[in-house]
Each structure stands twice: as structure tokens, then as C-alpha cells.
Amino acid sequence: AVVSTQSTGDYTTPNASNWFSTKFGSLPDSCCEVYKKGCGEDIVDKLNITKPPTGIYMTGCYKVLEDYTTHWLTITGSAALVFMFVQVLAIFLNISLHSRYREHEDYQLQSRKVKQVKDSQPDNVLKTGI
């Protein structure tokens, strides 16, 4: 994925003079707000390098990339925390469901035993209550 950074090397620290010592010899055209071939060559006043030029992106690429990365890491971390919460909730629900199942199973077992005892007694014992 291509990210449009709309940035230049941070103009103030280090200043744009570092671009003049590279093979470009000037600011790259990607620093220009309105891109056109050669737009970065004459945009900086070489006699007064500390004066910020107009028409270029003033935010450094490092800062833009750092903000972009922080943004997406925050979203990813938040999603991971939500996923973890759902997993823990599912574990507790599973434990609760299992304990209720066990209670129901024990009740069913007890009911069968009581029914077996009632079925094994003669009818006259049940009618007289003895």
C-alpha cells in the first residue's frame, strides 16, 4: 500500500540545506504542494536558507510516518484488546454453561433414581403411605 506522506525532510531540524548536499542538489519535487517536474529546484532561497519557503510541505516525513504508524498501531491494539475481552467473556460463559449442564445432569440422574425406587415399590405401599 502506498501512503501519500505530503511531507519533506523536516525543514527546521535538520534544515533544508541537507538536501543541497545530496545527489538532488535541491528539494525533491515530492516536497512541493503542487507537484510539477523541477518544482523543488528554485523554491528555496539559497542565500537565506533559514527562511522557510512557501509552497512546500513543512512537516517532516518522519513525523508523518510516525503519526501514521501510531494511528494504525492504536487501532490494531484496540482491536486486539476487544478480541481478548470477547475471548475471556466466552471462557466465563462456557464455565457457567458447563456448571449449569452439570447441575441439570445431576438433577436428571436423581430423578431417574427416584423413579426407579417408586417403580420398584408395590402399588399398595404407595396407596397406604407405608
List the helices and strands and how they pair.
Elements: H1 17-20, H2 61-120, H3 123-128
Entry keywords:
mainly alpha, 3 helices, 0% strand
Walk me through this protein's architecture.
This protein is mainly alpha-helical. It is 54% helix and 0% strand. The chain contains 3 helices and no strands.
> Percent range for helical residues?
40-55%
Count every helix, treating DSSP H or I runs of 4 or more residues as helices: 3
β-strand percent reads under 5%
Query: Which blocks of ≥5 consecutive residues have pLDDT under 50?
Result: 10-14
User: What does the radius of gyration come to?
Assistant: 38 Å
Number of strands: 0
Q: Quote the distance from N terminus to C terminus.
A: 86 Å
Structural class: mainly alpha
Largest sheet data: none
> Shape from CA axes?
rod-shaped
Estimate the mean pLDDT confidence.
Answer: 75
- Element pattern in H and E: HHH
